[in-house]
Amino acid sequence: MKTKFIFxxxxxxxxxxxxxxTKKENQFEEDQEGITTPHGEIDPTSVKEREDDxxxxxxxxxxxxxxxxxxxxxxxxxxxxxxKPDRGF
Length: 89
Description:
The structure is a single chain. The chain is an alpha+beta fold and about 90 residues long. Helix content is about 30%, strand content about 25%. It has one domain (about 20-85).
């Protein structure tokens, strides 16, 4: 039992340090999959959660950088805000 617990902690730490996608990144990719936004097509390989403010930053295929975040509505669904131009990353 103790070995499983230690293994779980080590695995969680390893995944956190390996650069795996965050939950927020996965939610953005899930919600935006197959959508072309008014400002361009999202490059799915560019989606990252910024460390400083935890907003989602991404690049469109035309090379422009954007940032967005979401709030939960009364039904518990994610509502993404209008993307804002970003400084890049």
